[in-house]
């Protein structure tokens, strides 16, 4: 049963100089323009809006916090954020979808906001498959049979996994930066030096010094990621702090560190997900209707659309979004993201 709770306290932080990039397993390459669809989104400043009361529901081994907008009987869309972001990446997307008649569910991923792992003895697991498993559990708890899934970064990966493994639960898919499913084996392959440099933080997290540094300085650390992954996104301290409070989650550091160590094969996942990870390591193709999106100023390593287009074997369209759009695409261009969600079901 779901109940509203109050949002968490804000954290104070200092401004920092820019440094790094984002995401670890996506191989870099030049983003190719899609002849099929291109659009321009002018640079925008961040919104000061906020969601209403956050609801909680027990799902699997979690108590998941989520925002909800729109009619309760509308078709469902689930919006999934990445690292280091939270539900506010969709603060201006959700009202657009709700106004179009969608029931919009925006959950905090494990390790963020008010989402909690219920058992003190449960592993603070951050392997790729667990986030998809969590979303399926949320859908079951809310009695949602099928939904449009849309996300970026960690959330985009979870959406891709569900579309590939449980297509009966995914009406359609919208994914920023495309096909994000990978494996420990794939991540053992060296990348070009420039990509390795951009992904410096994954190696930092592989050390105990890195884990301690992230725990002590997560606000400053994550703000650097925002600045470098979205170099033309004009956000103020209040906008960042609105999201940074979600990093107060008691499991946040452990899950982030495990996520990146697992990707490099330096940490093991839970055995119960071994078979699922083996399936994902085969790079399963996705048959549900899909729109992928890419910004022209994405400072995170990402593949060119041509590298993953063949993974989508159903109705498919790629959209390049110009105008200085970075990695946090739904927050930087909510209209383009919402438009993709509304149009993917009509491909």
TrEMBL record:
<feature type="signal peptide">
    <location>
        <begin position="1"/>
        <end position="20"/>
    </location>
</feature>
<dbReference type="InterPro" id="IPR029058">
    <property type="entry name" value="AB_hydrolase_fold"/>
</dbReference>
<dbReference type="Pfam" id="PF00561">
    <property type="entry name" value="Abhydrolase_1"/>
</dbReference>
<protein>
    <submittedName>
        <fullName>Alpha/beta hydrolase</fullName>
    </submittedName>
</protein>
<dbReference type="InterPro" id="IPR006311">
    <property type="entry name" value="TAT_signal"/>
</dbReference>
<keyword id="KW-0378">Hydrolase</keyword>
<dbReference type="InterPro" id="IPR050266">
    <property type="entry name" value="AB_hydrolase_sf"/>
</dbReference>
<keyword id="KW-0732">Signal</keyword>
<dbReference type="GO" id="GO:0016787">
    <property type="term" value="F:hydrolase activity"/>
</dbReference>
<feature type="domain" description="AB hydrolase-1">
    <location>
        <begin position="75"/>
        <end position="247"/>
    </location>
</feature>
<dbReference type="InterPro" id="IPR000639">
    <property type="entry name" value="Epox_hydrolase-like"/>
</dbReference>
<dbReference type="InterPro" id="IPR000073">
    <property type="entry name" value="AB_hydrolase_1"/>
</dbReference>
């Amino acid at each position: 049963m779901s109940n509203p709770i109050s949002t968490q306290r804000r954290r104070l932080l200092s401004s920092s100089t820019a440094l790094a990039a984002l995401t670890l397993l996506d191989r870099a390459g030049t983003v190719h323009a899609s002849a099929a669809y291109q659009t321009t989104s002018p640079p925008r400043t961040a919104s000061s809006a906020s969601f209403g009361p956050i609801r909680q529901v027990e799902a699997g081994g979690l108590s998941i916090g989520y925002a909800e907008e729109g009619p309760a009987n509308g078709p469902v869309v689930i919006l999934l954020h990445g690292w280091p972001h939270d539900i506010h990446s969709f603060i201006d997307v959700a009202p657009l979808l709700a106004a179009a008649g969608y029931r919009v569910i925006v959950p905090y991923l494990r390790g963020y906001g008010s989402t909690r792992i219920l058992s003190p003895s449960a592993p603070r697991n951050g392997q790729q498959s667990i986030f998809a498993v969590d979303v399926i559990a949320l859908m079951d708890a809310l009695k949602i049979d099928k939904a449009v899934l849309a996300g970026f970064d960690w959330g985009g990966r979870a959406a891709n996994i569900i579309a590939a493994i449980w297509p009966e639960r995914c009406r359609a898919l919208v994914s920023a930066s495309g096909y994000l499913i990978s494996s420990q084996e794939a991540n053992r392959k060296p990348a070009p030096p420039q990509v390795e440099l951009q992904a410096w933080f994954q190696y930092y997290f592989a050390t105990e010094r890195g884990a301690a540094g992230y725990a002590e300085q997560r606000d400053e650390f994550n703000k650097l990621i925002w600045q470098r992954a979205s170099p033309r996104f004009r956000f103020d301290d209040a906008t960042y702090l609105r999201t940074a409070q979600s990093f107060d989650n008691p499991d946040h550091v452990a899950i982030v560190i495990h996520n990146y160590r697992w990707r490099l094969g330096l940490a093991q996942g839970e055995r119960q997900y071994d078979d699922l990870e083996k399936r994902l390591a085969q790079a399963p193709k996705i048959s549900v209707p899909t729109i992928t999106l890419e910004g022209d100023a994405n400072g995170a390593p990402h593949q060119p659309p041509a590298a993953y287009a063949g993974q989508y074997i159903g109705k498919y369209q790629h959209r390049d979004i110009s105008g200085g759009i970075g990695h946090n695409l739904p927050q930087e261009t909510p209209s383009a993201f919402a438009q993709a969600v509304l149009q993917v079901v009509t491909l």
